[in-house]
Specification:
eight-stranded antiparallel beta sheet; single chain; 4 helices; alpha+beta; three-stranded antiparallel beta sheet
Amino acid sequence: MRHPLAIALCLAIGAGRRSAQSGEWLLTPSRAGKIVVGMTVDALYSAYGRENVTLVALFPEGMFTPAVQVFVPSEPGAPIAIANINQVCGQFRVTGISIVSPRLRTRDGLGVGSTVAEVRRRQPTAKLNREEGPSLIVEKLQMTFAIADATFADSTRVLRVWAWAPLPDSLTRCRR
């Protein structure tokens, strides 16, 4: 009789973990956990705490781009994501998210650490891309999965995910 009770308890604990991860660690085209495309940097500070958000300078294609690295206490030393920021409607806002933590996952379980085979199996429309480094582009998800190996071997792992949803319509037309 102990075994059915133990199994039920394990299933209940596991279900709780999945539902907690689905919110706080969910990866969508416009969201990585609590980071949302269009949110202000001040809102990002409120969501994660100023001590966990660091301003950095990126230079993609040689051009300066401001960004913030977002850390969480449970993963010290490495950011969970890097959010590009730009001034939109008079405030600095998140305009794109680069995910670097394996904890952030899509609803179907894809993220940093997934293999090329997993991405292609779960997203059959994924396009192989060699521009700016090897990656798989999944237009349906509005995400690019960067990998290290340009051979696109099934066992190659995702190193970074770029979520590239556009800004919300309410922010594309500033009211003056």
